[in-house]
Design goal:
Blueprint lengths: L1 H15 L12 E8 L4 E8 L5 E7 L7 E3 L12 E7 L5 E10 L2 E10 L7 E9 L7 E4 L12 H8 L10 H22 L1
Antiparallel strand pairs: 1-2, 2-3, 3-4, 5-6, 6-7, 7-8, 8-9
Keywords: Signal
Amino acid sequence: MRGWLVGLMLSSGAAAFAAPATLCRADETSYFSCTIGPAHKIASLCGHDAQPRYLQYRFGLPGRAPELQVPALTSDPAMGATFFHEAGRRADGKLDSDSVWFRHVDTIYKLEYVVTEDEDIGPEFAEIVLLRVPSTARPRGLSCDSAAGAKSLVNAFDLIDAMSPPGRFAQGSPWDALIAEERAARAAKAASAAKR
C-alpha cells in the first residue's frame, strides 16, 4: 500500500510539472505556447535563432495542420518586418509585461506575458489580445490556461531585432502602429480628394 501511494504521488507530481503543450517542433524554440478555452486549441510562437533565423505564430490543435500560421512559410522574405516587441514596466515595480505582436490581414495579434503583484489577477498571466482594424473596434482577449509556456517570450526580442532590416521603424505598441496607419490613410484620402 505504501509503495502504491508513493507511486501515485510521483505520477501526480510529474503531471503537475509537465511541459506546456506547444505546436513547435523539437528542433525549434518555443517562445510562447498556451492552451486556450474549452476546445484546448494551442497558440505558439516558434522560432529558430541560428541560420536560417525565423519566427512563426501557429494556432490550432496538436497533431493537426495549424488553422493559422503567420507568416505562412518560415522562409518568407518579409520575415524581418513581420514581428515587433515591447516591454512594459510600471514605475512602482508592481507590473512587468513582455509582448510580441504582428499583423495578419485586418487583425493585430499581441502575445503577452505579465507578472504582477495585483492579488486580483494573480502573480502572472498570459494572453493573446486581438485588435481588429479599425482601431475603434473593441479588442478581444483570449486568456491562456497557464502562463508557464509564455515565460520565454522575452527571449524572442533578440531574434526579432536580429531579423529586422536596418533602419526599420521600431513601433512601440500595436495601437501606435494602427493609429499611424489610419492617419496615413486619412491623409492620402484627403490628398486624393484635394486633387479632384
